[in-house]
Amino acid sequence: MKLLKWFLVAMLGLVAAIVLYITLIFDPNDFKPQIVEVVKEKTGRDLAINSDLSWTFFPSLGIKLGGITLSNPQGFKSAAMVSITEVVAEVALMPLLTKEVEISQLNLDGLTLSLETQKDGRNSFDGLTGEAKASEVSKTPANDASNISLAKLDIGGISITNTQISNLDRQTNTEQLLSLKSLTLGRFQLDQFAPLNYELSASLPDLNVTSSGEGQIKVSQNLQQVVINDFVVTNLLKGKGVPNGELKANLTTSLEVALDKQTMSLVLASFSAADIDASGQLDIAYGNKVPNIMAKLEVGDVDLDRFLPEQSTKTPETKQTDTAKVASVEPDLTAMKSVNLDVDVKVKSVKVANMKTQNWVFKMAMKQGVATVSQLSAALYGGTIKASAKLDGRSKVAKYEFDKRLKGVDIRALLIDAAEVDMLDGTANFNVAGKGSSLLPDNLKKNLLANGKFEIADGAIHGVNIPRMIRDAKAKLGGDMSSSGTGEQKTDFTSMTGSFKVAKGVVTNPDLNMASPLIRLTGAGTANVINEALNYKLTTSVVGSLEGQGGNERDALYGVEIPFAITGTMSEPKFALDTKALLDSKLKDETNKLKDSLFKKFGGF
User: Residue 175 contacts by C-beta under 8 Å, 6 or more apart in sequence?
Assistant: First the structure.
């Protein structure tokens, strides 16, 4: 027992001697000039440590320093790039002898980081980073990080308070401000979860953000795995570009990073913002030259109209002027080559531009700069939409191709909601396949090449009553000028079919066929999608009684073909009946009657 007692006394004496030697004989301030000189040599910057480095003794041995500044390059707005009010690190000495690190507390207070980018491109980091010499690189083991291991790491806590980060960009005349009020890590040990929380605010151009979060973090013994569990984040966004000026976004997530395998997995347990709920998972493998990303997401009801800006009250002339000012520059899609994607998204419902859809399924893969949408399907106005597409972003001008099919869609409801056009009614089937190049709005219309077919059953053309127009025109040609069509402006039909081609911004339909119990209609024409002009020629034939839509003469015009025209624009179509054809038809009819009469009088010759 005495031997053990004297051994403990000896050990305590040794520790005391080491502490006395370090604190009384070893003065950390002796190294300040050397540190300042090395920083100046390596970066060309001035490092200042204005306060003396001092030891702390309670509750454990530590070092305290403050008044630290690192200068910005000359000519920058802020003289100091980095300034720190105070840093305190308290470390247990004896565990260091066995590769065990025990830090009682690490406090960092008053960190200010002032970043700046000049108009000529110079920034605050110039000179701070450099490439290692080839000889140095060759001496560094490729998997050096995987060899790092600590017998024990025990940190009583880390506290970072009152941090300010500013980023001034003189090229865009914008400034961003980030204020980290606090970042706190509780007692931290390897292979053990430790509490982590933060609170920050940020001021960006036209946007202010406040955010806070808390969760659990764990680092493996070999420092190769990092796990964050049940991290709950609350965000509040305010600004002119935010719907209704304010948006709350909350999420709960978990993250697992494997540094040795170079993979990352993020699980989004819940997300809510602007009445949108979502959950999903994101897996990233970043070990290759081109990282691979797999994303799965399930979303509830989405109302995108809430996020769209209000319609401008500018006059058409002003809008054209503003459009002319926008530079016609193709979107830069080179970033598509820098990542491989595999995305699977399901959405309960989507409302956009007042158009309503349900049960969206979206599957897309992107590899080597080519994005392929293998499935895009949804329920749409009583029917379905299915599509596939490909976007090639490898060249300067993007190329695309697509195949889209609509089946059993209520075409009237769709047109009213999507384009505010009440012109056509019925159940529609629609197929179109096409390709093109350029993503500029004007070029999209000009360069599109497509072919398609359509079929509409049990429908009607709204805004015109063709049988009534025929009856009224015939009556006026017969001398009854009092005839005036009244009632519903609608032409019913049992079927309407046709095909179309799209080229140079013009849709051409050569084979329109419409059938109804009263009339038959065939036609051909064009619709210009650039200026929305319509140029359609139709031929109408009466095959039944006009009585069904106001007529009272059965088969009076049976077999007579009457040209019918549609002009104007898609939003304001104009319908016109060719009365000259009716006059020619009537003259032909009277001539035939006269010929029959003369034939009878001359004995059948």
Answer: 166, 167, 168, 169, 205
Element (H or E) spanning 493, and its range? strand 490-503
CA separation for the pair 548, 519 (Å, rounded): 11
CA 143 to chain CA mean position, Å:
37
Nearest-CA neighbor of 341 among 361, 375, 376, 368?
368
Q: Count CB-CB contacts under 10 A for residue 588.
A: 11
Calpha distance 201→206 (Å, rounded): 14
| pTM greater than the 0.90 cutoff | no
* Cross-strand partners of 346: 298, 361
Helical residues (DSSP H) of 283-410, grouped into ranges: 316-325
The number of C-alpha atoms within 13 Å of 119 and in the hemisphere containing its C-beta is 2
Long-range contacts of 322-331 (CB under 8 A, 24+ apart): 328/440, 328/442, 330/396, 330/397, 330/398, 330/438, 330/439, 330/440, 331/398, 331/439
Predicted confidence (pLDDT) per residue in 533-548, tens digit: 999 888 887 776 555 4
Chain segment 382-414, per-residue pLDDT in tens: 999 999 999 999 988 999 999 999 999 999 888
Q: What is the largest CA-CA distance in the chain?
A: 158
**Residue of 275, 232, 223 whose CA lies nearest to 250:** 232
Tell me how crowded residue 342 is: count the other CB atoms within 10 A of its CB.
15
pLDDT per residue as tens digits for the range 479-489: 665 655 566 78
DSSP state of 439: -
Quick check: 390 and 404 in contact, CB under 8 A?
no
The residue type of 166 is S
Report the interhelical angle of 466-477 vs 579-601 (nearest 10°). Answer: 50
Three-class secondary structure of residue 42 per DSSP: helix
Rounded Cα–Cα distance for residues 303 and 348 (Å):
11
